[in-house]
Every structure is written in C-alpha cells, then in structure tokens.
Amino acid sequence: MDNKQEERVTLKTVATYLGLTPGTISAVLNNTNASRRIPQATKDRIFAAAREMNYKANPLARALRTGKALPVKADSYDSGLTRGALVIMDADHFVLAMNAIQQVGLRVPDDVSVVEFDNIPAAVM
Fold first, then answer.
1. Which of 19, 24, 47, 125 has its CA 20 to 30 A from that of 90?
2. Per-domain boundaries in the chain
3. Distance CA 13, CA 55 (A)
C-alpha cells in the first residue's frame, strides 16, 4: 500500500469526475439560487459523487470567499483541513485573509507565515 498522503478532494476534483464545472458543483452543494435551474438528476449525481469521494468543504476557503466566520470544530486544525498556502496580491485581500485566518482559529506566526507584504520582506516587518 502506498504511504502517500491522499490528495484533498476539491470542488474541481468532483467537477472533473462528473464532467461538470466547479461552479455547478458549488451551486448545488451550497444550495445557491443558481442551483434551482439544475435538473434534480444532476443534483443527485453531484451529491452522490461528493459523498463517494468524501468531499469536505474547506473552511478557510469559504471564510475567504464569504468574508464571514464559519463555525469550525476544535479538531479541524489537527485533522489537516487548514493546511495549505495562500498568496495575496494586495492590501485589501491581505486584511480579509488575516481576518479569515484568525476566524478559523489559526495564529500568525505560529500557524501561518507571512513571507512578504506590500513588497516588504517579512524579515524587515
């Protein structure tokens, strides 16, 4: 058996598996207004594939997208749900990202490293 860590299943992974767009998958799984125009048979396929592939929403990505804090289980950090890299291109997104990171219980610099901000290396900050 391969010891390689399993890759995280994303909306794009589910979309590729089903031959649909990530936007369609997102609309159905998040029950948005756009999902109303998607046939029930397609919705059923999406829900079945998400269950089969063990899709889990990424709480950090959701917080960044919505700008709102979401309830996060105390053990989500330990389970690896919040691992990853984040690249921010401007000051407005930096503030949004820092707020979202704090809302999901991560700490700077203990859990998240800031490498550079506004062309200023972290070593100088």
1. 24
2. 11-52, 59-121
3. 9
